[in-house]
Amino acid sequence: MTTRGGTLHAPADHWATEHEHRPARLPPVVYVLALGTFLMGTTEFVVAGLLPEIASDVHVTVARAGLLITVFAVGMIVGAPLMAMLTLRLPKRWTLLLALGIFAAGHVIVALASSFALILAARFLTALATGAFWAVGNVVATRAAGPAASSRALGTVGAGAMLANVVGVPLGAFAGQLMGWRGPFWALAVLGAAAMVFITRQVPHDTQDDQAVSIRSELSALRSARLWLVLAACMTTTGGVLSTYTYILPLLTDRAHVAGALVPLVLVGFGVGALVGFLVGGRLGDRRPYLTAITAPAVTTVLLAGLCLLSGQAAPTIALVALLGLFGLGANPVLIALGVRFAGRAPTLGSALTVSAFNLGTAIGSWIASFALESSLGATGPAAVGTVIAALTLIPAITIAFTHRTRPAQSPRA
Hints:
Growth Hormone, Chain: A, MFS_dom, mainly alpha, 76% helix, MFS_trans_sf
């Protein structure tokens, strides 16, 4: 496996061992990519705090305005692998620049548009660019950091999106109240354009080997059974957590009787926990990837079960929500790194598919949880659904660890 450029080849199931040199600091490009994911995480969810203003301005209902979130999720699911294939022969540096350019242009369109249909189309376009940036950015980060720090690098890149939930989304919503809902979109457009400067300076040029790829060789990654196991784990680990988090408000207010004024602080606690969990999960994943991929969903399952049982009490519920942020997404950097690795000669497609799997798991989990919320389980229904989905993560995670132990050490195939 090369650290910069070149095809991402790993010796059979060899991960960075404890005696292998681990760089003290990550290269600057990793933090530049984290800045990009911060912007894209912000734009994905900032709409939630601006829905009434958007709906009033473009003359649609709030429920219909909610399609701006749905269409973005669909764009991420479709866009990550689609854009990975369409930009296959384009140097990764130029792919990142193109994605940021489209990102900025999409926000300008939203800021100027008066038609809801045009805003929807611009959001979908922005989501396609976001999927492309995330997929390619993950590959660039792992190559820049090297095999001994790949999970740590991915944890840092993903932490940008987690930080968006803690800082970017609240600031965007606050700015929208002061400046009007179009203001945050103008700001994101400017910041996206500024990020292009950092990408130009920090992302290295591809080597000749990077550009000598074909769609056929990329699609060969789909023959990897272990890649599909990773994708299944991506769907269930995120689906379990976010199916619960999507409907956390009724659990906090109706069941745990948390005061409405305290709910934002509880959500910030979840966001801070997720940020720390991503960073810690990335660090642990470089040393014990398979153990981390099993432990995080196992603890998450226990926490979600605890929410079901203790949600009638405010203090335990608040603590469990914060811990859910800490452990719930902690396995994600490891799963992304495994997806990139098990894709063999198609790391970009492997990365793109993990992005799609995370979003698909969120969409399916939230959809099932909506029915549970209206069932006899009431406010605890989504947490019960999340418990089951999170527990399912243990099946692919344990299977991956088992195949790692039983696979011949000299086999070059992923």
